Amino acid sequence: MFRRRLTGVLAAGVATAALLAACGGGGDDAADGPVTLKVLTWEPGGTEYWQQVKSTFEASHQDIKLDLQSVPFDKYPEVQGPYITSQSGPDVMANNAGLELFDRRGAYTPLGDKAAEINKDLVTYSGACEEFDTSKPCYGVPFSYQGNVLYYNKDVLTAAGLDPENPPATWDEFGAACDAVKKAGKTCLALGLSGTFPAYWDFPEIARNYLTEDDIRGVLNGTLSWKDPKLVQVLEKLAEITTKGWANKNAPSITMLPDGADIFQRGDAAFAGTIISDAVNWEAFGKALGDDKLGVTRWPAINPSAPLAGKFSGIEGAVYGVTKWSEKKEAGLKFITWLAGKENGELWVKYAKGQPLNKNVDPALLPESPAFKKIQELIAEPTLHAGVMLSGPEADALARGWQQVTLGQLTVDKWADQMQQALERSPTKKQGN
Amino acid sequence: MSISTAPAAEPAAATTPPAPVRRTRRFRHAREWWFGALLVLPALALAFTFKLVPLVRGVTTSFESSSGFGDSSFAGFDNYTRMFDDPMVLASFRNALLVVATLPVWIVVPLVLAVLIHQRAPGWKFFRAVYFIPYTIAPIVVGIMFRQILAPDGPINALLRTVGLEPLALEWLNGRNSALFSLVAVALWSFFGLGVMTYLAGLATIPDEVLEAAYLDGAGFWRRLFSVVVPMLRPTVAYWSVLCASGVLIWLFPLIYALTQGGPGDATMLPEYLVFLTTFQFLDRGYGSAIGIALFVFVALISVFSVRHMFKEGTRKPR
């Protein structure tokens, strides 16, 4: 009798547990409590900003909780890779706009018709779409803007007898300014070439003088050869930066961040070409040198009449999309829609000190720094960013080639050959893919 | 005295145990065998799961062609033939050979230091306290530290300039050869403590009287080292040699990552770092695996001589 009753109780328990498990199985329609979204992120903008994202979003979306899996940026590919190959893991994740995202597009749910509606208030979102074309499938939502400018130290320019309010605007003027700065005992351009970072960022600044937007799409598709005279000229001008002695001598063996930036922040260099958002930007330099001592300008033009010479090579920052395998796609879509919105744009400005993409961000919230305001002017006319069109092997060969050219171990022609070989080795640019 | 031609009694019959005893012995043997197998099984399972399976998977992947995170297809020997035309792969293996050429330094330097500590040379107490510290610092931290130390305006060059050796104050990480050998020197600094500890453990087995007798016979430090210590420490030297031969290329990875990222150019590019770049940065898994397998064969070829030597030492009967 007792055994039968015990069996009955156990069976009821098992049935109840099974029912609960089924209900809590993670579908979108969970009626018993909020849906928990797993978000894989490298926390662009910093931890404080992401804590604000979590608390602000959850406050306005009682039905969704965020479970942030934060991974350092340099470890991110190692963590994300296995998720993608096993088609499991987070509901929402991120990749940098451009080729990095396109390489992984199979892991994201295309936004379809909703892309235009979600991103309607953004300055641009083409970096989240195939071939930078918003009429083609888009895979996520950006909210930050990135690109490269030339920061300069007004005191160093003044000491070299230059006018800090009129920094060099052309390549020749820049060369003359460098001669003056060197005579004054300082480095002209603080540069660190170890790693792909500076080559990847500086390449578009030169490329704008020779390439059209169609050419840049050719770089993306792998149809523009590195032996093309236009690209060879770009490499020649990149080489000049170091072979003419404009940069610090140890550039090939140090990194731009933090080593190259340190040279500039110490006040030992007149110029530093680096990014506008995230790590080491106008805010860090302003703190180190004083906001009033920090100037911002466009990279000097080589061919001022070139159609893209006066534009800004900009690229959306991290793009967040809903994973293909997520069972909570609706909640994921709500989250990324919110990321593209004004509320998050304002958090991005306030806590990450970054450039927002949302056009409706309250201007009163924008930082007062003169450098930030100048950047706002420069980014007003954007064009495609040639750097993010490079595949991994191309970016690597660009950086290593620049190091070798600087050390006199390689000619520009051989560098172009190596770039072409790197293009042919790029699995994501194989023709016919 | 007469010689009997009668067959002698079989002594074996006298020593053959009765059947129940034989059964008990066989049962005991079987039980010991199974017990031994049971003890070995976890190690075998771990080796199978974490060594053999990834190795087989690596070999399989090396015959595949992949594009980003998309599906892969069978590529035959394409990835292997590609390596012969890839200047970066060739440069990485050329650098690997240069690193392997430094093996004698890896073997001798810790040995000399261990003998100095063992023989209580002046300052031995201090060295005994600190020699292992570099090994306890994470290699990635060592890399970051030495980025500052080896900087053109860093402490090493400052010291050289102070003592009047300005011409030796190089840009250590900027030159084609200086970068690779600086990297090896940093790795040696990081790992020599393990070698010293290994040798000290071996030296503890040499009776003090032997070294004292050599000392009283007038043998100097180097004579004692090469005529007494090294012959008696042969198994330990062989063990450390195998460890270095198989590890030296792999130990360098975190240092390359933190110090040079394989540059300038391809000056410090080693196969393991290239595997990482090709697989995770270039998203070319098949080709990355093929380079990895080539590295495996390279290290196996280098290690095989040392392993053979160690095996002979281990199986040599005591005289």
From TrEMBL, chain A:
UniProt cross-references to Pfam families, sorted A to Z: SBP_bac_1 (PF01547)
Protein keywords: Signal
Family annotation (PROSITE patterns): PROKAR_LIPOPROTEIN (PS51257)
InterPro entries, alphabetized: Bact_solute-bd_prot1, SBP
Signal peptide interval: 1-21
Domain of life: Bacteria
Protein name, per record: Carbohydrate ABC transporter substrate-binding protein, CUT1 family (TC 3.A.1.1.-)
Organism: Micromonospora gifhornensis
Automatic annotation (TrEMBL), chain B:
Keywords per UniProt: Cell membrane, Membrane, Transmembrane, Transmembrane helix, Transport
Biased composition (Low complexity): 1-16
Any Pfam family the entry gives: BPD_transp_1
Region Disordered, residue ranges: 1-21
Membrane topology: Multi-pass membrane protein
Keyword Transmembrane helix annotated: yes
Segments forming domain ABC transmembrane type-1: 92-306
Compartments it resides in: Cell membrane
Recorded superkingdom: Bacteria
Residue ranges crossing the lipid bilayer per the database entry: 33-53, 96-117, 129-150, 179-201, 237-259, 287-307
Family to which the UniProt record says this protein belongs: Belongs to the binding-protein-dependent transport system permease family.
PANTHER family per record: BLL4140 PROTEIN (PTHR43227)
Protein name: Sugar ABC transporter permease
Organism annotation: Micromonospora gifhornensis
